[in-house]
Design brief:
The chain is mainly beta and about 170 residues long. The chain has one domain. It contains four helices and nine strands; from the N terminus they run αααβαββββββββ. The strands form two sheets. A seven-stranded antiparallel sheet has the order 1-4-5-8-7-6-9. It is globular. The structure holds iron/sulfur cluster (SF4) (2 copies).
């Protein structure tokens, strides 16, 4: 499915492409407090993720076209880097028992509400399964990029990254 789509053919990275650059988090990484997932495999001049992190847990360095690298030992999964990324390429995922959670950036109206049933989507925007909204944060400092958390069945954790837009 999504694993066979590439950045070139779909505009979004495949699981294989993420793995090749060390950006595919494992389900073990996602246990407990969860883990930061950066899916940024194009060598573009960009580093707001690095400057947004108060822990120094993300390094782009020099040249600025380097891919971002996470130091998981430093990351507190605070989520401050999620709204800072102009590419909407950062999420936080966690798993517990049969449930997965993803915290993702959201810039569309209308917003969902906490408790809403939504459709989870993969990197290509294809619907995967139902999910439930469990939190929404949209402070002024986010500059209009909200951060939403949705819960959904764990078997979709590697593919689900966001929710379908609502009309
Ligand atoms: S989640 Fe917080 S601590 Fe982790 S990399 Fe992002 S800003 Fe830094
Ligand atoms: S801010 Fe986003 S797009 Fe820019 S380097 Fe970081 S992860 Fe990639």
């Amino acid at each position: 499915m999504s694993a066979q789509q590439s950045l070139k053919t779909s505009g979004a990275p495949s699981l294989e492409e993420l793995k090749a650059v060390g950006q595919l988090a494992s389900e073990k990484d996602m246990e407990g407090r969860g883990c930061l997932c950066i899916e940024c495999i194009e060598e573009i001049p960009c580093n707001p993720c690095q400057t947004a992190c108060p822990q120094g847990a993300i390094t782009v360095g020099f040249p600025i076209t380097n891919l971002p690298v996470i130091d998981r030992a430093k990351c507190t999964v605070c989520g401050l880097c999620i709204p800072a990324c102009p590419g909407l390429a950062i999420t936080i995922k966690s798993v517990k028992d049969d449930t997965a959670r993803v915290r993702f950036p959201w810039e569309y109206l209308p917003f969902p509400a906490i408790g809403d049933t939504v459709r989870m989507v993969d990197r290509q925007g294809r619907e995967l399964c139902d999910g439930t909204i469990s939190s929404i944060t949209n402070p002024v400092r986010n500059n209009r990029t909200a951060v939403i958390t949705a819960e959904f069945p764990r078997k979709f954790v590697q593919d689900a990254i966001s929710i379908a837009r609502r009309s």
